[in-house]
Amino acid sequence: MQIHNVKKENPNKKARQVGRGGHRGKTSGRGGKGQTARAGNKPRPQMRDIIKKLPKLRGRGKNSLKTVEANVQSVSLLAIASLNTEIINRDILLKSSIIKRDAGKLPQVKIVGNTPISKKLIIAKGIRVSKGAKEIIEKAGGQFK
User: Fold this and answer.
1) Whose CA is closest to 115, among 91, 142, 80?
2) Quick check: is 44 in a domain?
3) How far is 88 from 144, CA to CA, in rounded Å?
4) Would residue 61 be called left, alpha or beta, if left means φ above 0 and alpha means ψ between -120 and 50 degrees?
5) What is the pLDDT of residues 14-27, one digit of tens each?
6) Domain count, the chain
7) Is 21 inside a domain boundary?
8) What's the confidence (pLDDT) of residue 67?
9) What's CA 42's distance to the chain center, in Å?
10) N- to C-terminal Cα distance for the chain?
11) In which domain, by residue range, is 101 found?
12) In a domain, 57, yes or no
């Protein structure tokens, strides 16, 4: 037996015949009629249109979402009155762990509260005080520098 005498088990499949010719049949993979059937049809990406409509944030830099204003840590009047010292500044509040450093820097501090105290406090410059806390400190004989 030689190779030219070998018979096939399965005969070749015949291609489906289509009226318009070609391999793929009917619309040859181009969909229906009209604009989508023509050469060069490429719909515009929807996401691009959405992005184009958004306004540009110019001139803010890479940290555009960070606040420009420094964060202020609020401190209660009772926490300050419980300290052993009369002079209150940011360093003393940091050492007594009432406030914490913010990104390695001393934060801005605001004293708040409306609980009466009897201790005379001397509040250093650079510390903000709410109206209610200011009245209470002044009634107790405190000072502001």
Assistant:
1) 80
2) no
3) 10
4) left
5) 877 666 656 677 77
6) 1
7) no
8) 73
9) 35
10) 115
11) 72-144
12) no
